[in-house]
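**Tokenised fold:**
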Amino acid sequence: MTKKINLFANLKSDFASGLVVFLVALPLCLGIAMASGAPLFSGIISGVIGGIVVGFLSKSHISVSGPAAGLTAIILTAITDFGAFDIFLTAVFISGLIQLALGFIKAGSISNYFPTNVIEGMLAGIGIIIILKQLPHAFGYDADFEGDQSFIQSNGDNSFSSLFEVFNHIQMGAIVITVISLIILISWDKVPFLKKLKLIPGALIAVISGIVLNEIFISTGSSLAISNEHLVSLPVPTSLDELKSIIVTPNFSGFLNPQVWIVGLTIAIVASIETLLCIEAADRMDVQKRYTDTNVELKAQGIGNMLSSLIGGLPMTSVVVRSSANNNAGAKSKMSTIIHGVLLLISVLAIPVMLNKIPLATLATILILVGYKLAKPATFKHFWEKGKYQFIPFIATLVAVVTTDLLKGVLLGIVISIIFILKGNLKRAYSFKKEEYIDGDIIHIDLAQEVSFLNKAAIKSTLNDIPENSKVIINAHDTVYIAHDILDLIREFKETRAIDENIKVKLKGFKNAYDLDNSPDVANHVSFEHYYDVAKRVMVKKEVVKEVFQE
């Protein structure tokens, strides 16, 4: 029986966190639309649908969906190739249908195979990207658009070189607002009497303070006044007809175009993988350690993308930046996600002029703190102490996410993790009772429960290192599976080198090592009489078989 969830049970904390996410999401929606070569309003539409519709349908408690930076290159290329935004919207609708189908065939279970250190590396990488991208905005240098997460920027700079360029474009007004915003945000979590004001998030106070300060700078004619290009830029419809003209609907004639289906499939695959990665990350961030049904999430994303396309919105995914901001603001349930979507809808219709007064420096400060919490030094220390097999995939994922993109970074981390797993399995194929060999020693080799062809090289090397005149006991009592390659290797060692170099070999627990009856590679402890009967059929004397399979 499914437990009913009361969405209004934690309204105070959820409203405060929803407000914070709204403030973070607004410029990101606009920036990602700009980067995608799409109408600015399409990013807002995607954010509204991602918040209200996907937020309601999803089983995730803190994940937030909306337009994602990871899709910008695909969107920009598709719109350019099609030459029409309405044709592209048909591809988005198709991607939603595919995601819905993926949910029904339970493709979401793939997320269970993402290693923890890789997910943590992805989060830390995203945190560093946020910090690198927002620092220029905090100093008043906005050469790159809000929402861009690419390492190589459109102006030819990269995330690191742009930091040095900041010193040539410092705006003192932005720095003043950044410092004051930072003081407010840190104090709100540290000062006891301010912590009690949970309904009013520190981010809102920081935003209001930024607006008020800049208005004072403007009214007094101060050189600290922040110009319009360093403020939020939201489309402002002046009439209902103008608002209607902003809404674009899909041109379904695109259904007959194979290229539209290819783009739709591409968006569905990339968006689904990014969503599953972000859901896994969101579940790890959740202090209550609740788990999300990823198949339901894929269905919710599919429905969200279909609805978004019908009213001119961009494709969406679950997004780490917004989800992190939601978690850090104290979200308790998915009501915060829904509230953020409602606030986006209300604000763009009712108060766009006021929103356009928000300094980007204030929003950058909020995001920098989010980035720090994702990539705090304690996380690096944690994986360092766990050893190289945990730390190397973590740091490799982080670096690749920062310098390439999220999917490539995660893929690299998973590949390295798999290599380490295989290497670990190679080492665990057997164990020695003695490591240093001296002529005449008795050497014990105990095989593991499973010994596959992957272990062949390691076992071959070990057998080659055994000195002359030794006695070797190879024990397979605990072994369930032995590959034919390994059995052949042991047999060749026993019948050739062992005889030539006076090495006495004793095999224990091998029941069908020579595959006399073509049975599977399983050490299943079949009786000696069974092998005697088989031996008779192939005209092998009982004494020979007994010598080979000594107990």
